[in-house]
Amino acid sequence: MKLTDILVEDRVKIPLENTEKTKIIEEMVTLIDGSRPLKNREQILKAVLDREAVMSTGVGDEIAIPHGKSDGVDDIVAALGVTREPVNFNSLDNRPVRLVWLLVGPQDKTGPHLKALSRISRLMHKKELREKLIKTQRPEDVMDVISGEENSFSEN
User: Among residues 67, 69, 98, 113, which one is catalytic?
Assistant: First the structure.
């Protein structure tokens, strides 16, 4: 699975309008809902916020990956937002966040959900890639950067 299989241009937002973690998550769910109407937006939002309440999805290196599983979607979908300014996400490294990935999958697709989380984490581990994405101004350029990186990335 490539990120470009689950992330499309109209689910990339630069910059995000909100500056608070919960509002950013709401904005990201709305972004997905605008791209492909969700079966149950509120159920999805609740699943992501419930997961966030267990432990922050601010994973470090200016990245947050809020995620959840819900029957409100039929397949795994992702959105990506770039914040205007650094945002406190209660990250594991206590640093603010600039890149927010939202990942939502159905209850019965745990394996693909985990694979997508892993894929995001592995690609975002590259500092140069993160810096490119933060500097990018247009969703189509974000998709080009991600696609180019994935094309040079070998599966293990």
Answer: 67
Query: Rounded to whole angstroms, how far apart are CA atoms 48 and 54?
Result: 10
Enter the pTM of the model: 0.93
- Concerning whether 67 is annotated as a catalytic residue, the answer is yes
What are the pLDDT digits (tens) for 59-83? 999 999 999 999 888 899 999 999 9
Ordered DSSP codes for 55-119: S--EEETTEE--EEE-TT-SS-EEEEEEEEEEE----TTS--EEEEEEEEE-TT-HHHHHHHHHH
Domains of the chain in start order, with CATH, are 3-151 (3.40.930.10)
